[in-house]
Design goal:
Blueprint lengths: L1 H25 L4 E6 L6 E5 L9 E5 L6 E5 L1 H9 L2 H29 L7 H19 L4 H9 L1
Parallel strand pairs: 1-3
Antiparallel strand pairs: 1-4, 2-3
Helix pairs in contact: 1-3, 3-4
Length: about 150
């Protein structure tokens, strides 16, 4: 059961970061790296997809699987900074939205491997926390400073 849980967390991290990367591509923000784990990267490969961007993207894997990340090039970061607020929110919020898509799988997939998983309060706590934190990201009150910037845009 532990390996299923760890494997699922890794899959969730990959899909979360791919959601960010997808919306970065759609908004023409140049990416530098997509990686699973934190540096240093042990396995890495330069990938060039001409339809997305001219510069190669480093796809990597680290032995420290405590997270994942997507980073932009310097030009990509400048372009990201110049985007309107709604597009920035779409890029930064894409990972959180992917959690809503994954919650049903988080509740169903473990059942295939361990039919008594639903008796484990830890599993319910993880599922509930993921959903609640994702939901709070979108419904929390907007601070006055952010509302001022939104009104000015």
């Amino acid at each position: 059961m532990l390996w299923v849980f760890i494997g699922f967390i890794v899959v969730v991290a990959i899909i979360h970061e791919l959601a960010h990367a997808f919306f970065m591509m759609r908004n023409k923000v140049e990416m530098k790296t997509i990686a699973l784990g934190f540096p240093p990267l042990v396995l890495k490969k330069q990938v060039t997809i001409k339809r997305i961007q001219e510069k190669p993207i480093t796809v990597g894997l680290s032995p420290f699987l405590l997270g994942a990340y997507v980073s932009a090039t310097i030009e990509g970061q400048k372009h990201l900074d110049s985007l309107p607020l709604d597009k920035k929110l779409l890029i930064f919020g894409a990972g959180v939205v992917s959690h809503f898509i994954l919650i049903p799988f988080l509740l169903i997939v473990p059942y295939i491997f361990e039919p008594t998983w639903h008796l484990n309060p830890v599993v319910w706590g993880i599922a509930a926390t993921s959903g609640i934190l994702s939901l709070l990201f979108f419904i929390r009150p907007v601070p006055a400073s952010v509302a001022t910037v939104m009104a000015a845009s």
